[in-house]
Write a structure and sequence with these properties.
It is built from 5 helices and 4 strands; from the N terminus they run αααβαββαβ. With 161 residues, it is an alpha+beta fold. Strand 2 and strand 3 form a beta hairpin. It is elongated.
Length: 161
Amino acid sequence: MPLDMHDLKILDVLQTDGRISVSDLARQINLSSTPCAQRVRKLEMRGFISGYKAIVDPDAIGLDLLVFIQVTLKETDESTLRSFNSAIGRVANVLECHMVGGDFDYLLKARVTGMTEYRKLLGGEISSLPMVQGTHSYFVMEEVKDGTPLPLKPMQTNGKK
């Protein structure tokens, strides 16, 4: 069953304000509270809403340096990929890890307190993994756009039921 306009509006509002009350949400999308709450529950059960979280300002907690790290592996067989995925999943400062196609194998997004912590992260936790052949890092000078809500379109269900 595809998403209708009320569902899309609910998702759009919740992406920017996950703490909104059901009554305020219902008012914004022109529904009464009970049907609105039922729709939110259905969206959660169908997997369109995967969770709620607080967004912490990284600068406020001292994680001032944002770095993207390209990682090239020695081999790309299934065993090596699984081993790397498992190992990188345990590295706290790595916020995101994406397997990519192209000239390298993974793109990591990491946050650290500064250059000293970055060197420890790169040398002690990433480059020291036995399957890593090489890395290349890019330091972010300014975050122009981050955490933008997903663009939602009618009939966009991606196979969710």
